[in-house]
Amino acid sequence: MKPEIILKILHKDARNNITVFHRSQTARGALSHTAGVTLNYHEPYYEGWAPSLAMQEEFISMSDLMLIEKHLTAEQWGSQSLGGTIYRLKEAQ
User: Fold this and answer.
1) Percentages of the chain per state (helix, strand, coil), in multiples of 5
2) 12-48 tens-digit pLDDT
3) pTM of structure
4) Which of 8, 18, 57, 61 is deepest in the core (most CB within 10 A)?
């Protein structure tokens, strides 16, 4: 997805964000790791009658995120085993 499209989607609604997530070892001794980056956005079409569909998500690449990272704020959440970062647009100055 092109960086300008991602920024356009983030500008549409204050609830829109990008989430980077990771999950490490799920069982003692297991050597597994899961990670990803999603663009989370509000879909007004479903507002009011299908709340579970009102928030949509789409996987994007880490390189797409890195191209627009200077326009975003970062909020860490979770721990080493389960967590990540939520990115939102910086407020206009």
Assistant:
1) 30, 40, 35
2) 999 999 999 988 766 666 667 788 999 999 988 888 8
3) 0.83
4) 18
